[in-house]
Specification:
The structure is a homodimer.
Chain A lengths: L8 H6 L11 H13 L13 H12 L2 H4 L5 H28 L5 H5 L3 H9 L11 H12 L8 H24 L4 H4 L3 H18 L1 H4 L11 H9 L7 H23 L4 H22 L31 H30 L5 H16 L10 H9 L6 H17 L8 H13 L4 H10 L1 H17 L1 H21 L3 E6 L6 E3 L12 E6 L5 H25 L6 E5 L8 H16 L3 E5 L3 H9 L2 H5 L4 E2 L2 H14 L5 H4 L1
Parallel strand pairs in A: 3-4, 4-5, 5-6
Antiparallel strand pairs in A: 1-2, 1-3
Helix pairs in contact in A: 5-15, 5-18, 5-19, 5-20, 7-17, 7-19, 8-16, 9-16, 9-17, 11-20, 11-21, 11-22, 11-23, 14-15, 14-20, 16-17, 16-18, 21-22, 22-23, 24-25
């Protein structure tokens, strides 16, 4: 039965065939796919058709967004930014000191880190709501990763220098990712990963605070729950009740203000001011009761003056280079993920656009500058940015206000923190961390997507029982495994005709769909790649075998045509094409005929190049399932007396 | 403009809506997806509705396929298998000795490995054409990986024991993968990877033979081309011309027979017998000319007798455990990939079915048994199996014949190999390897799929200039990167109406497609996952922005409806749902309306659970693009005087 002997009614009628797209030169298609991969947002669009001088200004504005919005800045904006800036300063000072303690670094570094980096970000950042500062998770990571190699108490200077160097590497990594437009790497930290990871990190950070709350002198360097609990309960005789009582009181106060502000969003400033209030109250209490002599540890002396330069302290040649680079890379990526997620969320609220790659460059430059001026890793923490947003900030000027206020503190007010009890700092950290454990999000994940829930729980358990890195590796591997599994085990479905229509849909989803006698329609829902070629070959052969058996047992018209709906096969590789060739052979051997429906342009091109189209015959490729069914039905009924099985 | 005020003509007519599938209990959907992942071939199908005794027999036959075909074995089959078995023995003996030398193991191991493993495979294997034996690539890998830790010349016994242990681990891994039904891991070695990897390994193996051909005593242990070339050219004074001349003559003879047999497939036996002929000729030549005293190295004494047991030589407690396990895992996977690919190819020729997981168990058991009987890693080499197939084998009995012939050799004929020159073995290896360099396949890859070509070249360069493992890691990473990139950067396309039809297709592929005024139709061609959620959000917003700008500049009807064709979105996760929510908000903010078309059942279920369906309104979900366009057009024309943009 030569194909040429037949007229194809439905395809002849409408005259639209699946055309083979004209082959493009290689460099052109390469350029196109590179552009879509690295420049999906088309950042040079606005540069088109502009005179050179304008292009230069646009270019400057691209890298320094402040040049774009500063000319339009008004006094009204400044009033709003001033209030927001002062509010976040009141949060930044105690948080900065607390997180620096968490990172086992001198407390003053927390203040330094709230001075230089916000200024850099104000120039280069494109978010209007992000408030720059240190974050708990990155601080903890620095402590646990560097602490494995160098003891911060025994070699404080070496540890400090390694922390600067790690910050430098983090900055270089962030800027490089931005310049190379590899921002999408951050996308591999899925929402579920971040929920689980943050909750795990918050749990770990809270556990670490038991040291401060219980006034312990010695404490484990490990972060997992087993080591911490062992460390806490092996030295019950060292617990200080004075410290514990003070800590619990402040924690209760902080939680109360948080709860109140959450119920009445207008009074956001109550919870924003609570940390500074706690610090002041705690310091006064210690000052008047001399509690520092009764087991309540205090911050002690803080050096006056602005950030000393630290460029010469960056050490690249030491034996610790590997661990420093590893720390820089992991903390850099985590900080990036948090900062970009926060920036994006607020930009969405206010309906403006943030360029992820530009933000990365800003974060990178801010950390490189920070590492040279005695700062450690900074990003855009959620808590501080949320306060900034609630306080009504308009532009990044609120960061400049904060930096100025911190500068004044550094120059004149550091002695005031001498009597601040460490236990208050622990309370501040715990109250901030409890807000990061988002169990409602975990419940939502469970309800909507079980696999995402597993990823989330994997990250949590990994962080809490292993370490922060283990949790991260588990979550990212599970996420990638999901993508690979999707491709390795694509869904295939048999299609039927929806009554009174030309539409063909899956029998499983639409039980009303009708079978077409003698024709079996199959749809593949994924690209055909090496990873699924073997599976698809076996699965298609099983579909056909089962259908033939079923028809035989019910005594219906035997199968004569297999229609493969390729509409959703977005891509194919050479393993996939071999698979199709084998499927074709297999179908021929059973005495059936194969027809393809609606292959995309890329698939069409490859099928043509690999001669598969010649093999199957281009007249067996249809635009729609309905057309293919029409043509097959026509052939079925024309030669009813002699079934295709025998003539082929 | 409340949605409830409107009647939806086209959807009301046909009465088919996209239904939300009834929610299944969790364990049921878990069971279903686990089954589809691990048991896509449904191996228990034949066990259904059978009495227990029959089930027992079927179960035995499942693990020992010989029980299934042995009762039907005839004398006709045996005649064919006998001829095939003798033919492959003549290839197996010289190849076995050569490859054992390649692995730096005693030559006799090559014979041992052609005795026990084929017997095990004949019981358990399901391929009728596979001939079991050692392979060059795995031998080379064993030499290079174990050789890094232990020098085979200085500590031959330790090296031998480590090789047995590595074989044991390889067997355990193979059997475990089969039992856990993780066979699809092998699928991640794509066709392109294997082409590049095999060519690279063949190049490296040929380079290693320069030692034998040039009669060198000392040789580098590295496998990369730079080290080998340096090793060869720094000792030009050690080159032995006698050896080189002999080697070139035999190589020429072997290539000639190969060429002849390729041209005349009927005379396949000429090339099959050529290696044994070379060995006999070479040995006679050395015996009569006493060339062993003139720089031609010979095999020397081979111990008579069958495989000695080696169970007690397996060493699990030594300091080399890590490297042994690594060697076992890598060689095990490579051997598996080759064996299964070979088995599948011949099964396709003869149109019978091979169960990959069952084959893995067979390979695993054969190597575990081998490691206890002084064999090293075996699999189904392509060359030997092809000869087996050409010689007309019918069942695995040809393996039993080969094992018997090798047994006879071991018992009585080993002294005959005393004078076999090593250079002949080198020629045999080179001539076998040259057949593995499939440059035509590489050209085909370049023509059809550039990325596959890059994977192939990456594997080749990695193997030749780095090491076998580096090449493998490069190729697998590139392949996985491709899958991840496909998901991270899915194709989106704007659709238009194909004239005179209800069909909507991409403008890029079908330039005849027509725009619908006021409506923009967009299709997403991949699952919506965390990895692409951010990209898709930006890309969709850019599509809409560009379309609005275009319409503004041409002065056409402004945009009012966005139709998102979800037919190809096979799956969605929580990040994807958040993305859709944001897209919806963005579209609302622009004063437009969003309609979804044809979401699959899984997507529908998740959209419902996450309340997105409530948010968008289920009446905005259509079965086909045509229906959605019909409904939008109806609304557009009903309220033409008051554009939707203002009423919403």
């Amino acid at each position: 039965m030569g194909n040429a002997d037949y007229v194809f009614p439905s395809s002849g009628d409408c005259g639209h065939r699946v055309a083979i797209p004209p082959s493009q030169p290689f460099y052109k298609s390469l350029k196109k796919s590179l552009k879509e991969t690295f420049f999906p947002d088309d950042p040079v669009r606005q540069f088109k058709n502009q005179p050179p001088s304008r292009k230069f200004i646009l270019g400057l504005q691209y890298f320094l967004p402040i040049l774009e919005w500063a000319p339009r800045y008004t006094f009204q904006y400044f009033k709003a930014d001033l209030i927001a800036g002062i509010t976040i300063t009141s949060l930044a000072i105690p948080q900065g000191i607390s997180y620096a303690k968490l990172a086992n670094l001198p407390p003053i570094l927390g203040l330094y880190s709230s001075f230089v980096p916000p200024l850099v970000y104000a120039m280069m950042g494109s978010s209007r709501d992000l408030a720059v500062g240190t974050v708990a998770v990155a601080s903890l990571l620095t402590a646990s990763m560097l602490g494995k190699e160098v003891n911060a108490n025994e070699h404080p200077t070496l540890y400090l220098h390694l922390a600067f160097t790690a910050t430098f590497f983090a900055g270089v990594l962030q800027a490089t990712l931005g310049i190379l437009r590899l921002g999408f790497i951050v996308d591999f930290l899925s929402h579920a990963t971040i929920v689980g990871f943050m909750a795990g990190a918050a749990t770990v950070v809270c556990l670490q605070q038991l040291k401060g709350i219980l006034g312990l002198e010695h404490f484990t360097h490990a972060t997992d729950v087993v080591s911490v609990m062992r460390s806490v309960f092996t030295q019950t005789h060292q617990w200080r009740w004075e410290s514990a009582v003070l800590g619990c009181c402040f924690l209760f106060f902080l939680m109360l203000t948080r709860y109140f502000s959450k119920r009445r969003p207008r009074f956001f400033w109550i919870s924003a001011l609570a940390p500074l209030t706690s610090v002041i109250l705690g310091s006064l209490l210690v000052y008047f009761t001399h509690a520092e002599n009764h087991g309540v540890q205090v911050i002690g002396h803080l050096k006056k003056g602005l950030n000393p330069p630290s460029l010469t302290h960056l050490t690249f040649g030491s034996q610790y280079l590997t661990v420093v680079m590893k720390t820089g890379i992991i903390t850099g990526v985590i900080a990036l993920a948090e900062g970009i997620a926060v920036g994006r969320s607020f930009a969405m609220f206010k309906n403006y656009h943030i360029d992820g790659n530009k933000e990365m460059i800003a974060f990178g430059m801010m950390n490189i500058a920070g590492s040279c001026t005695s700062c450690y890793l900074t990003t855009g923490p959620f808590s501080r940015s949320a306060v900034n947003f609630n306080a009504g900030c308009k532009t990044a000027v609120s960061n400049i206000v904060m930096a100025t206020a911190v500068m004044i503190t550094l120059l004149f007010l550091t002695p005031l923190f001498h009597y601040t009890p460490l236990v208050v700092l622990s309370s501040i950290i715990i109250s901030a961390m409890l807000g990061l454990i988002d169990y409602e999000a975990a419940v939502h994940l469970w309800q909507v997507d079980k696999f995402d829930f597993i990823v989330c729980i994997g990250a949590y358990i990994g962080v809490v029982f292993g370490s922060v890195e283990i949790g991260l590796v588990i979550a990212v591997s599970l996420s990638i495994l999901r993508v690979l599994l999707f491709v390795a085990r694509p869904r295939t479905s048999a299609l039927g005709n929806i009554p009174n229509s030309m539409t063909y849909r899956s029998f499983v989803q639409y039980p009303v769909a009708n079978n077409i006698p003698g024709i079996f329609i199959l749809r593949v829902d994924a690209p055909i790649y090496f990873a699924n070629a073997n599976y698809l070959r076996e699965r298609i052969s099983r579909w056909i075998g089962e259908e033939e058996e079923k028809l035989k047992s019910t005594g219906e018209t035997s199968l004569q045509y297999i229609i493969l709906d390729m509409g959703c096969v977005a891509s194919i590789d050479t393993s996939g094409i071999s698979m199709l060739e084998e499927v074709k052979k297999n179908i021929d051997r059973r005495g059936l005929k194969l027809a393809l429906v609606n292959p995309g342009s890329e698939v069409m091109k490859k099928l043509d190049k690999s001669k598969f189209l010649e093999d199957i015959g281009q007249e067996w490729v249809y635009l729609t399932v309905a057309e293919a069914v029409g043509a097959c039905n026509f052939m079925l009924h024309t030669c009813k007396s002699a079934p295709a099985r025998e003539i082929v």
